[in-house]
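During the reporting period, we have paired protein sequences with backbone structure tokens. One record among many follows, to show the layout:
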Amino acid sequence: MAHPKEVRLKVRRAFVFDRLSLEIAAVKHGVSHATARRWKSDACEQGDDWDKAQAAQLMAGGGIEAAARQMLAGLVMQYQATMDELNASEMTPAEKVTMLASLADGYNKTINASKRVLPETNELAIAMSVVQRLSEFVKDRHPDHVGTFAEILEPFGRELEGEYS
């Protein structure tokens, strides 16, 4: 199925300016990830490197602090998109908790990397670390409660996000 050029431009805009991952930008605009990857590759061959454009946009936005804030905002958007996908998926509760622990780990690593630039993220990093450890604890020691934990964790994540953003 051929997509109009405007859809390709929307995917590029979401990737470059909104700092969405290519996969999320593709889903947002109703195209497959493979199609978006092909568009990105084709554009690069024609001199339009989406990664360089994204980096330039990030730096033009106001220096390293703005770049770090933009990176964190992008991560929060991807976190929420992943949470929405997990809620809609047919995964088992144990698979969901494993995915949530992985998501929390990535989030935590990003927060830790930004501490030097944005010291106010330290509290959020601590909160996310606690959530990650609790996820692993429930999965390892109370596997029969994994489903309930997964139901509670998603709205609690929104509470944390509201508290520390």
